[in-house]
Amino acid sequence: MDWSHYRFHTQWTLAAPLADVYDALEQAEDYPRWWPQVREVDRIDDTSGVVRIRSLLPYDLTFTARETRRDPAAGVLEITMTGDLDGWARWTLTETGSGTLADYDQEVDVTKPLMRRLAVPGRPLFRANHALMMRAGRRGLAAHLEAV
C-alpha cells in the first residue's frame, strides 16, 4: 500500500438549484470567500490557477489546478492537480427534489516531504483533517448560496 495515496468521496446536499451550485463551484477564485480552508486561489489563465489550502493541522498544501472538464449540462467540473498534491478532483452535481446533490471525488498522491515522512502515523489525522475541511466547505457554500 502506498500510504501517501488518498481517495476521497464526499456528498453535500444543498438547498439550492443545480445551476446556482454549479456557478459557485466553477468560480474557484471565489472559494476563499466562502470556504475558510481555501486560503488563496491565484489565476494563471482561463483554465488554471495556483491554490493554497490549510485546514486544522499546521501545514499548507499548494498545487496548480488545471481544468480538464467543464460540462454544465452534465453538472461536472474536473481538475488535475500538480504540486504538494498530484492527482485529480471532480464535482458531479445532480438535482434532487429539494435542491442539489454535490458529489466530490478526489484521488491524489501527496508529494509534500513532511507529509510523506509522516504518512503512516499521520494518515488518520490527514484523513480527519480532510473531513473537517469538507464539512466547513459545505457549510460555507450553503451560506454563500443563501446570501445570493
Number of helices: 4
Strand content: over 45%
Strand order of the largest sheet: 1-7-6-5-4-3-2
What's the name of the CATH homologous superfamily?
START domain
- Oligomeric organization of the protein chains: single chain
CATH topology: Alpha-D-Glucose-1,6-Bisphosphate, Chain A, domain 4
**What is the name of the CATH class?**
Alpha Beta
Quickly describe the structure.
The protein has 148 residues and is of the alpha+beta class. The chain has helices spanning 18-26, 31-34, 113-117, 119-147; strands at residues 5-14, 38-45, 48-53, 61-71, 76-83, 85-96, 99-110. The chain has a single domain (5-147), classed as START domain (Alpha-D-Glucose-1,6-Bisphosphate, Chain A, domain 4, 2-Layer Sandwich).
How would you characterize this protein structure?
It is a single chain. By secondary structure, the protein is α+β, with helices and mostly antiparallel strands. It has one domain (5-147): Alpha-D-Glucose-1,6-Bisphosphate, Chain A, domain 4 (2-Layer Sandwich), CATH 3.30.530.20. It is 32% helix and 45% strand. The chain is built from four helices and seven strands, in the order βααββββββαα. It has helices spanning 18-26, 31-34, 113-117, 119-147, and strands at residues 5-14, 38-45, 48-53, 61-71, 76-83, 85-96, 99-110. The longest helix has 29 residues, at 119-147. The radius of gyration is 15 Å and the shape is globular. The N and C termini lie far apart (44 Å).
